[in-house]
Design goal:
single chain; alpha+beta; Fructose-1,6-Bisphosphatase, Chain A, domain 1; D-Maltodextrin-Binding Protein, domain 2; seven-stranded mixed beta sheet; 14 strands
């Protein structure tokens, strides 16, 4: 068992502080008539709210954790992340398209990653805050995963015990980006009990809650996955890419209740 690199409880409290600050900004801009929307080079939208949230998080982290580095969707990554260091991974608004259309399924994702002296990386803490849904999810290594609804007491999360694809509930983002895995993926959907296109962070949080058994997305970045990965795994689930590499450091993301993981990954190879 790896030792937690830092003050675990202090990091959890800082995650709460960051989420509080983010929620104030994002909810103030949610459905605002003067919301500024631009298109990034990858043709995805970005709003003034995305940039304001990330700016605020960076300001707090530079004050409270000056030795930690920061990786953010809107303002880039450090040129070098040295061994034996920590860095925060920020997606200021995951689900920007929902945010700008007034759909409440969006969240601020904040993950904390440790890179050891051998260059190996692992997520050690994470927060997903979805203020328009009145929900938060958070976790830390060896601490467990928890959710809070409407500011009430935190409840510990546990994944489901469903053991057969025919009994499984699966959630996905969309059918774009699957490449040569699209046909086996569509065949797999027919084998499950229930399929819903919930998408984005919420699919993975529902896996952590035990309400959904599998969530899969074919194209993701680290900031889309770091926070959700630690929450799923600390709830007893498994998080890999589509090639079954553990953690959020690939270019795709699969959350399962762990029991179904090999069945899901194996079905994509046929």
């Amino acid at each position: 068992m790896n030792q937690y690199p830092g003050d675990l409880l202090a990091d959890i409290e800082l995650l709460r502080e960051l989420a509080d600050a983010s929620d104030l900004i994002s909810m103030n801009r949610y459905s605002a008539q003067d919301l500024v929307i631009e298109t990034k080079p990858d043709l995805t939208p970005v709003t003034d709210a995305d940039r304001a949230v990330e700016t605020k998080i960076r300001e707090i982290l530079k004050s409270r954790r000056p030795n930690d580095l920061i990786v953010g969707e809107e303002f880039g990554v450090p040129e070098l992340i040295p061994e034996n260091s920590r860095y925060w991974v920020i997606d200021p608004i995951d689900g920007t398209k929902n945010f700008l259309r007034g759909v409440p399924i969006w969240a601020t994702l904040i993950g904390l990653v440790h890179r050891d002296i051998a260059g190996n990386e692992r997520v050690i803490a994470g927060m997903v805050s979805a203020p328009a849904l009145f929900r938060r999810w958070f976790a830390a290594e060896y601490f467990g995963a928890f959710t809070e609804v409407n500011g009430e007491a935190a409840v510990q999360l546990h994944v489901s015990k469903v053991s057969s694809l025919s009994d499984a509930s699966l959630s996905f983002s969309d059918l774009m980006g699957w490449g040569d895995k699209k046909e086996p993926y569509l065949r797999l959907l027919d084998k499950t009990w229930r399929v819903r296109g919930i998408g984005d962070f919420w699919s993975h949080m529902l896996v952590a809650e035990g309400a959904v058994d599998i969530a899969a997305e074919p194209k993701l970045a680290l900031w889309d996955m770091a926070a959700v990965a630690i929450i799923v795994t600390e709830a007893g689930g498994k998080f890999t890419d589509l090639e079954d590499n553990e953690g959020p450091f690939g270019s795709s993301g699969v959350s399962t209740n762990s029991i179904l993981h090999n069945q899901f990954i194996g079905a994509l190879q046929t």
